[in-house]
Amino acid sequence: PGKADGPAPKSKASTDGNKTIHKVTEGQSPASIAKRYGVKTSDIFSWNSWEKDHILHIGDDVIVYTKN
């Protein structure tokens, strides 16, 4: 059987909501930033098109979409 018709599954996290640019400060990680904004770490990786071994540096801009 072929593929079922209908919308394709989303491969990226939803970008609905308010876009915020977070500036990385000392000691922050993707997980700590996700916790601060109440989002999933995997979503932050998706929104920013990061590979699984991405390293954050102080001063980096991180895109976050919040529901607020």
Q: What does the largest sheet look like?
A: 2 strands, antiparallel
What best-fitting shape do the alpha-carbon axes yield? globular
Beginning-to-end CA distance, first to last residue: 43 Å
Q: Write down the overall mean pLDDT.
A: 86
As residue ranges, the low-confidence spans are: 3-11
Q: Which structural category do the helix and sheet elements fall into?
A: alpha+beta
Radius of gyration: 14 Å
- The tally of strands reads 2
The helix count comes to 2
Strand content: 15-25%
Helical proportion?
10-25%
Q: What order do the strands of the largest sheet run in, or round the barrel if closed?
A: 1-2
Topology as a string of helices (H) and strands (E): EHHE
